[in-house]
Predict the 3D structure of the following.
Amino acid sequence: MRVPQLLPSALLIAGLFAQAPAPLADLRERIELFRADRNDLDRRYDVPMSALRRERLRTFLRAQLAALDGLDFTTLGRDASIDWQLLHGHCRHDLDVLEREERQDGEVAPLLPFAPAITALGEQQRALQDQDPKAAATTLAQISQQVTAVEGELAAGKHDGIALPVARRALERLHALRRQLDAWFQFHDGYDPQFSWWARAPHHAAVEGLERWHKAVQQKLVDGRTGDASLVGDPIGEAALLHELEFERIPYTPAELVQIAEREFAFCDAEMQQAAQALGCGDDWKQALELVKQRYVEPGRQPALVRDLAREAVAFVEQRQLITIPELCKECWRMSMMSPAAQRVNPFFLGGETIQVSYPTEAMSQAEKLQSLRSNNEHFARATVFHELIPGHWLQQYSQARWHGYRSMFETPFWIEGWALYWEMRLYALGFARGPEDKVGMLYWRKHRCARIVFSLNFHLGRWTAPQCVDYLVERVGHERAAAEGEVRRSVGGSYGPLYQCAYMLGGLQLRALHDELVGPGKRSEQQFHDAVLQQNAIPIALIRAALGAELPGQDAGSGWRFADAGK
């Protein structure tokens, strides 16, 4: 099949692609320049499933690594040595991601035989090459022919063995290719009369074929094999999980992480049993949980509850001089109410500068209202509000804008979510719970974060399906089913990284271990420690440990830190 001719990749590599980064000794300046360059490349090379895009980015990243390796690491100061490791690890991780993308594109290729032609058209437009209208019409006609051919293959059963996640991914790629084809066509149509004369009719036919093919794949390879397509994810496999763990400087295997989660679960189970006994429920923690779920405020009163809980948490932390809370930070957070549609994916609060309150609306069904009320009761909210605001996510965001802001590119959920979860553990240990009801509410969330490690790793290892993950959350944690489905839907939908759900508990354990290491007589106070962690910005916690340690960090700082071995 004839496709539009592009600039030879060898020529590109020999020319512009081969330009190395300028020799910058200032690592902050180098990071800022890297981010600007990468943003420009992502805008320029935005064609889906493009081999040219991957080639260009690989060349860029390898040049960055070569420049970093050419620096004399022993001459770098503390901040610069941390910055070197951040940028070096980021480049290596991006190369790993490109390899994964290429492998995943290869897996969907049998369902998308027309992808190279559409990609080539898009790259031709991005390179501002002249368009031959007659050749374009020929390419469009060939796309239609390829659609017809693959439809015949599907009818004959040739693609029945394609895994469900691969079929879902093919639909996502198909949607992106369709948008690319439309953008290419609109760029020329009407502006070039010859193009419109040649290409308009075959473009219409190609679009009809792509829409027909999308429907066929959806019906035969997706809908016919699952009851709820939104509860189908795309597991990345053990090898990719290990790469992600290495990037985050987590020196544990997935199996070891599940063991850590089970150990933390044992603590929660023992504490929950004591709280259940205090509530007169004997050893039945589910009965105690049911009592707590019934204790919600009336519709319309949730914003006032959230306000009061936020103020109480600030007072608790300040009275104990645990961390510095600037007055502007206390003044400048906001509140919004989450829509019913958003609550299907986020059944609980979300936060940061604006805490998004999940609570029933008039438009919900009776069952949806009750599940939302029960899932956001007063005692669950007692741990959620400070997690989202102060000293949790909003204090983080406030600090990120003011300390080492250039490091925001390296943001990791182990710092973002781990910090907020760490405060759940810290405040529990300091007696923030007023009684057994509050303990049940706080422990519910802690069990939830243990479960996230177990279900997300088993899902990405290919051992559990998404519906099995839902069942696990209902049985092991006590979720309302709608809340469990929303949690899993968010976890496997692709908008979060594969380790994101693990990061809450594991990041919290990292910070707890670092607290025990650095706080005490002759060391830092709690306030000094917590302020110092925030001032490093959202980087891997192993590198925060290196930054706050007495010795200058080495070239692979923190990669062997077995933070969870001691246990608690």
Notes: Residues 78-108 form the longest helix (31 residues). Confidence is low (pLDDT under 50) at residues 1-18. Residues 1-225 form one domain. The CA atoms of residues 5 and 543 lie 47 Å apart.
